[in-house]
Amino acid sequence: MVHSTKAQRETAGPSPAAQWLAALDSRPAAASLAAAQLAPMLTHMLEHPDQALASAHIVATAKTFKALADMGRDAAVRAQLAATDLARATSTLLRQTEADLSNNNSSGRAERVFLLVQLLRCVCNQSADHDGARAALLEHGAVAAVARVLCSDDVARQPLPLGQAAFGAALNVALDHADCADALLAAGALPPHVRALQPGSDALAIWPLVCSSLDNLCEREASVAQLEQDAACAPAMLQALAANARALAELGDDESDGDDEPQVRRGAMRTLLWVLCEALEKSAVVRQQLCEPAHVLLLLDVLDHYLAQPVEPAETAELAAPDAQPPNRPMPQQNRYADAAAQMLVGVSGEDAALALFDDAALTARLLAMLAPERAGDRTHDARAAAAALCLGNLARTDAHCEHVVRAHPQLAQALVGVWLGDAQTVDVRTRHAASGLLKNLCVAAANKQRLADMGLAAVAARCMRTAVVPVQANCIGILRHLVNGASALQTAQALLAGDACALAELLDAVRSTDIDGIRCEGTRLVAAVAKKAFLPRAAADADALRALQPRLAELDLVTPLVRLIMLDGQRHPLLQQESLVALTVLASAPAAPFAARLVCLLVPANSVPLATPLAAAEGTVAAEGAVATEDTVAAEDTVATEDTAAGFDELLARLLRQEGAVWPQTTLQAKSLVAQLQHAVKQDPAAHDSLGLEILHTKLSPLA
User: Fold this and answer.
1) CB neighbours of residue 382 within 10 Å
2) How confident is the model over 302-325, as a mean pLDDT?
3) CA within 20 to 30 Å of 124's CA: 259, 300, 482, 628, which one?
C-alpha cells in the first residue's frame, strides 16, 4: 500500500465518505440512514472527485461503494438509490479510475483496483431490473467505461474479482436494454467476452457470467458485424466448447464429492452453444470462418459430446415447447443441444467455402466411420450417422465429389442404399431423411446413375417413396427423377411400375391429392420424365424395353397431374410448366392410348377448374375425376367457378399461345405443338373425344396455334 506524505496526513481530515460510513456502521437502520444522508456525500464527490480518489481517501471511497453495492441487492433500497445522484457519481469515479489504471498510474494501484471492483459492483447492482438506473449510467458514461475495463489486460490477469465484477456489470446494465447493449458493442465489448472463455480455475468461475452477458449482446444485430469483422471470435467460441466437452469427459458424472465444476461447465457450455448456433444462423461470413477441417472436427466432437449425454428430466418437458429447438433445424436429435450442434455442422458444411473440406483425409475418415452400418438401429449411432450424411451431402455438391464418393467408397454407397435408407424397420426416420438427401445429391452426377441403380437404389427409392414422412418422400421422388434422366432410365421406370399396385400409381394419387408444393411439383416432374422416356425413347439399347412399358402406363392417368401443375404452378415455375407441356405433347402423340382424349376432356372449364382449386377449399365441390361435362354443366359453370376463381385449362393454354404476360417464347412454341398434336389425334377418331372439348379446341385454340 502506498502511504500518504506527512503533509497529506496533516491536511487530510475524515472525508464525507468516511463520515457516512461511520454513521452507517453505528446504526442498524442502514437503508433509511443511507437514503437520508447519502445526498450530501454524493454532491461532495461530484464537486471534488479528485479528493475522493486521493490516496488519503481512496480506501474510504471504495468501502463506501462496497456498502452501496451491497445495499443495492435489495429492490426497495435500489429504488431509493435510483432517486439520488448515485448513478452520476458512480459513472464519474468509474471513468476516472479506469483512466488512471489504463495510464499505468502505479500510485496506489492495488487500492485503485479495489475501488474499480466496488464501482463495477455498484453498476451491476444499481442496474438490476431497473431501466431508469441503466439509462442514467449510460447517459453519464458508465457503460462505455465498463467496456474499456473489459478490454483491458487487468481483466485477463484478475478474473477474480475484477473480471467477475466487470462482466457482472456488463450483464446487468445491458440485460434486455437495447441502448446499453448497443453501447457496449460499439465500444468493442464483444471480443473480450470471447477471450475470457479461457482455461483456468479462476476463469471458469466467471464463465456463467461471461456466457450470459455474451448471449445478451449477441441478441443485438450489431453483434453480427463485430463477429464478422473479428474472424477469431467464432473459432475461439468453438474451441472453448470443445475444450469444455473434453474437460467434462475427464471429470465424469460423479458429483458426489460436492464439486460443482461439472454443473458450472455444463450450464455455461449450453449458453455458449446457443450463442454460436444463432450467430452461425445469422451470418454466412461467420459460417465461413469455421470452414476449416480442424473446426469441423471440433463441431463433430461437440456433437458427440451431446449425443452421449442423457436428456435431463427438467429438459424433457421443455423440448415440447414450440421454441425449444433451434430455428430451421435440419435434423431434430435426441436433445436440443445435439440438435444445435448438428445445425451448426450442416450450416458450416453448406457454405461454398467448405467444398475444399472434401479433400481432407481426417475429416473424410471421421464421416465414414460415423456412417458405418454395423450399429444401425442404435439411437445414438443413428443420430451420428444422420449428421455425417447431412455434412457429406453438403460437401458432395459437385459432380467430381459425388463421383468420388461412389467410386472410391462403394461400401458406403451400398450401406446408404440398403441400410440407412432402405431399412425402415431398424433405422431412425431422421437418419433415413439425411441418407435420402445424400443419395439425391450423389445421383445427380451422370457417372453415378447406373452404379447406384445397380446397387438397387431405384427399387429402394420407389418403395420408400410410399412413406407418410414427407421429407423422406420428397427426397425419394428427387432420387427417382435424377435416375430416370440418365442411363438408369429403364431400371427406374421398371421399379416404378413393378407390381399390381405400383409405386407410380401411388405417386399419381399423391400428386393429385396434395397441396404440398414439394410433393406435387417434384412428383409431377417425375411423372413427366417417365412419360417422355417411355413414349419418346432415345437410348437405342433400351428403346424396345422402354416401349414395352407403354401399355402399363396407358392404364394410368398421367395427364391430370400434368395439367394441374400447369394450372397451379405454371406462372411461379415456368420451367415446370415447360416440362409439363412437353410431356403432354408426347402423351398426346401416343397411339392407342387415352391420353389425347383425356386432354380434350380437360379443355372444358367445368372439368379443369376444380384442378386449380386448393384442396381444402374445394372439398365437396370437385367433380368426380374423369366425368365428362354436358351442356347443362357448362351452362351452370358459375356454380363451380365464379369470376374470382382460376381460369380453366383452355384459357391458360390460350394465354400461352398468345404469349400473354411473362411467358417464355419456347413455352408458346410448345403450347402450339401440343394443340397441333391434339388436332392430329382427334382427326384419327373424332368420336372418341368429348364434343365440348372438341369445340373449344377448334374454335378457341386452333386459330391461335
Assistant:
1) 24
2) 65
3) 259
